Amino acid sequence: MDYRRKRRLTFFTIGLIFLLSGIEYAVILPTIWRYLQTLNAAPYFLGLSLSAFSFSGLLAGPLFGFWSDRTLSTKKIILFANVFEIVGNFMYFMGYSKWLLLCSRLVAGIGTGAGSSIFGFLTRNTAPEDRSTVFAAVMASRQAGLLIGPAFNIFLRLCNFQIGPFTVNKYTSPGLFMCLLWILLQFVILFMYWDFTSQDETCQRNGVEREEVEQEEEEGKPLVGHNELTGSYGTVTSVQSRTSSVANGEVTHVSPPPSPPPEEVNSSPFKNFSASREFLREEVVVLLAAQFITLFNQTALETMVTPLTQKFFNFGELENSIMYCVCGVEVISGFLFVRWLSKRVAERVVLAVGLILCNISCVWCLIFLANPQGGFAWQLAEFIIGVFLQVLGLPFVAVAQVSLFSKITSEKTQGFTQGIRRSVGGLATILGPLWAGGLTSDLYIMLGLMMGLLALLTIMMVVSYERLVAPVTVDNPTGTESED
Questions:
Q1: 234: which residues sit within 8 A by CB, 6+ positions away?
Q2: Structural domain ending residue among the three candidates 183, 211, 239
Q3: Nearest-angstrom CA–CA distance, 226 and 241
Q4: What is the per-residue burial (b if ≥16 Cβ within 10 Å, else e) of 412-438?
Q5: CA 183 to CA 22: how far, in whole Å?
Q6: CB-CB contact of 82 with 184 (8 Å)
Q7: What is the mean pLDDT of each run of 10 residues along the chain (484 residues)?
Q8: Residue 163, strand partner residues
Q9: Quick check: is 158 in a domain?
Q10: Which of 34, 236, 316, 411 stands 20 to 30 A from 341 (CA)?
Q11: How far, in Å, CA of 92 to CA of 108, rounded?
């Protein structure tokens, strides 16, 4: 199978991985609050369960990223990580107690650590100018899962039967459903995912060009060649030809064979790596802050939404699923727009637009959602506008910061650095639900901190705006000298 077909199938499989992660989130999130209530869990258990998923991913991400950087292999890492997704979702399906439910999210979260290896793989195998487009497509795949997930929930809520000692109902069925999907994905990865590198494309392209050159030389080759006149064949007697030329008083320059590229197979990508030099730079700190603050605010609002809709609008699983489905359509549209926009403007402009939208959203929620006024219709309109604005700004910030981060950090250690970036995001998704879970009855304090963090991030970006650009050269490309 040629390189291009392997590349297309591999990228398609990566899209499926993120699609399933989105489906899992959309299937479980609308029902986990009521699921915990059936197990007599306190309200803070909602924040604990959501945070447990992110906590284990926070720890696993850098480890999986380090593993992929050392081996330049991601397939076996993904297969290994998916085992935790399968086991964790089956534990969620069992659901004997609130503690088992908490542990199930902890185990399943380990599987998300493979995302750092995937982002490192994409960075190594995409050109810098195409990176925003590729990342936007991958993130849109996850949002497509968020869109499709609620549709599955509409059917899963109808389940009510027994499988041996296990009860399958609208609360436990999402775990069984996701367990089966992750098992199917294992077979897809086995047969449709390849660990190729950019050198594979170069070798294939050089091979095609070499064949074309050889064909042209064969067509233009004279009947009697120079080697035949000197009595030599091929390159065996090239030294003899040079000697005879010198003896006759004719000095002919013969180019030495090109030196082979230096062997870097066994060299560690972390040989000259310095964490302080890599991460304690102004532009890197700003992007990591953007990752943390936007995800903290997003997960805090997501944690708040389900209890809020139950309190003010008496929403159940069906209404929440429809709401997440509509949000999924909006986010996918946003990612498609960002994909188009990133080809025309710089990433820092996209990031600035996203921050402006996030600030507007937080101000709206602080004014209208902290203490809703008016009748049912007015309160529902305030809620819809607040959610719409929050979801609208997400694609701009997400794509811009991950694309910029991949360009200003070393390409050789992308798995590890992307793992650190995702761990910062994981820390935010831990603290966000914990912060919101304990303050669902005091929204002014909850939203006030979120507004303060956004204001801080905006100031940081304005001060560091000139530095938020990709450097001319991040790493010395391998094999440049030989190509010259």
A1: 227
A2: 211
A3: 10
A4: bbbbbbbbbbbbbbbbbbbbbbbbbbe
A5: 16
A6: no
A7: 81 91 84 85 81 84 86 88 93 88 91 87 82 80 78 82 85 91 93 76 54 58 48 42 43 44 52 66 89 87 80 77 78 85 85 91 84 79 85 86 83 79 83 77 83 92 86 49 38
A8: 166
A9: yes
A10: 411
A11: 9
Nearest one of 119, 114, 54, 122 to 81, comparing CA atoms: 114
Say what the pTM is: 0.69
Contact residues for 55 (Cβ-Cβ < 8 A; gap 6+): 106, 109, 426, 430
Provide the pLDDT for residue 255.
Answer: 45
pLDDT in tens, 265-293: 455 665 666 666 767 788 889 999 998 99
Q: Could you write out the DSSP letters of every residue in 287-325?
A: HHHHHHHHHHHHHHHHHHHHHHHHHHT---HHHHHHHHH
Residue count (the chain): 484
**By C-alpha distance, which of 154, 163, 13, 193 is closest to 93?**
163
- Among residues 173, 196, 211, the one where a domain terminates is 211
5: which 2 tokens? 């077909």
Residue among 308, 283, 297 nearest 360 (CA): 297
**Could you tell me the end-to-end alpha-carbon distance of the chain, in angstroms, rounded to an integer?**
30
| 367 found inside a domain | yes
Q: Name the residue with tokens 């494309």.
A: 201
Q: Are residues 18 and 149 in the same domain?
A: yes
Q: What is the pLDDT of residues 305-361, one digit of tens each?
A: 878 888 788 887 677 777 877 877 888 888 888 888 888 888 889 999 999 999 998
What distance in Å separates the CA atoms of residue 456 and residue 464, rounded to the nearest whole number? 12
- Domain total of the chain: 2
